[in-house]
Specification:
- Two copies of one chain form a homodimer.
- The first copy, chain A, is of the alpha+beta class.
- Chain A is built from eight helices and eight strands; from the N terminus they run αααββαααββαβββαβ.
- The first copy, chain A, has a six-stranded antiparallel β-sheet with strand order 3-8-4-5-6-7. A two-stranded antiparallel sheet of chain A has the order 1-2.
- In chain A, 36% of the residues are buried.
- The first copy, chain A, binds a DNA duplex through helix 3.
Chain lengths: 229, 229
DNA sequence: TCGATAATTTCGTACAGACGAAATTCTCTC
DNA sequence: GAGAGAATTTCGTCTGTACGAAATTATCGA
């Protein structure tokens, strides 16, 4: 009478689980170990909570956990993370482009909707936008089948003085920071020349699209740059 | 150090709570008592679960519960229900109109999204549509301040033989039913003449926009009609 | 090599939401 | 007015997710 458990049936993931997987992916992408504290910090949770959840996710085969060492996504965990990431970024793009939601609000809004929107709906939105490859902050949008460009670009804080570059992406984590970067015209696609960098984490002299600006190291670390093609 | 509980701070409602309130509103709107069993049926939950939740909601002031009698929304419960209903119906309208989601899918999709979308986003969507008053199934959309037309229209099953009417709305609960009604062109705005009704819940002879049709009583009860203006 | 400190895990606990089984209460009919 | 049957509630329990406090383990400097 009752449903026999089908081993391969991918039970829908809960919102918290999707958030954990996304956070782990993100931290790993940054080249760091997805350690308990790092996750707790990123998710604004107590380390004790993370410990418990990580154990559970490991037992579900979504990640591997070496105690005291951190978590690494398995193939299935990674693909779940990318599915969520795709939703998030398609939503961000759609909200910004079609509905005119401000640059600095789309992240928070997408953060909620990504757990509720169906894959078909996400695909519809993507198609309506012409299947964009990047979201409004310049982050690459995974395809339906989980393919993403994972190139890690340099940060404006590390960009060599005297060199020109294009803004590839900006971090979407902090709305206030985003507003600030927006005022400086530091959006994906902007052309940047780095003129001078004061030592000891001092301000950086740049010009953005020809306009001279000074920006601090924290803001500079939120901006990713590549050489002009 | 810790937050003192602010009595009037409207703590965000959880998705299950919003679902309960919506269901109670709906049942009351149908003129019935929001009894435990009715709620359990509507929400596909065990009666025991409903009992517990109803007690909790009563203690939060969202409804009044007379044991063994049923629940009635308080003013604040009602306004929460209408807020959710607005979200639901704006979402349905937006998905159908702008994104081309099929008539019979919008309900399920909106059911998820309604708990995640912010009020500002909903307002943006509504504005993009020109602040429509009805959703794709003809149900009235509450305004931001919780005003709705609560007129209860007659059902096609009760519509007097020999009379003409306009379809005001169709029930969105069952996708298969919706598809069927769609095939018969029974959409809001359609013109209907009722020619004959066989006794004992028999089929009804109608014409829809001039085309003769026969429909059964169950489908007829899903269609609401008003006199032509 | 030994602590001291920091990171992590364990443990007991809490709350929301759900369930089945058992107990209760209502209602309706005779 | 008394049961019978239906509706409802209570009770104990389960799962997921979170927490603080305490115990454990790792690491790094002396």
């Amino acid at each position: 009478m009752s449903e026999p458990p089908v081993p391969s049936a991918a039970a829908a993931l809960t919102a918290p689980v999707e958030d954990y997987l996304k956070a782990i992916y993100d931290i790993q992408q940054g080249g760091n170990a997805a350690t308990t504290n790092a996750l707790a910090e990123r998710l604004s949770l107590a380390p004790a909570s993370v410990s418990g959840m990580v154990r559970r996710l490991a037992s579900q085969g979504l990640l591997e956990h070496e105690p005291y060492r951190g978590a690494r996504l398995t193939a299935s965990g990674r693909s779940a993370a990318l599915r969520t990431l795709r939703r998030h970024r398609v939503l961000e793009s759609y909200l910004a482009t079609v509905l005119g939601v401000p640059w600095d609000d789309v992240h928070a809004e997408a953060e909620q909707l990504e757990h509720a929107a169906s894959d078909v709906l996400i695909d519809r939105m993507a198609r309506a936008l012409g299947d964009p490859m990047f979201d409004p902050h310049g982050a690459p949008i995974p395809t339906r089948d989980g393919v993403v460009d994972e190139t890690r670009h340099a940060t404006l804080a590390d960009w060599p003085v005297g060199t020109r570059g294009t803004v590839m992406s900006v971090s979407d984590k902090d709305p206030a920071m985003l507003r600030y970067l927006g005022e400086l015209e530091l959006r994906p696609g902007a052309m940047i020349d780095v003129h001078n960098r004061a030592p000891y984490d001092g301000p950086i002299d740049v010009s953005v699209g020809g306009v001279p600006r000074q920006i601090g190291p924290t803001a500079a670390r939120a901006v990713r740059i590549a050489a002009v093609a």
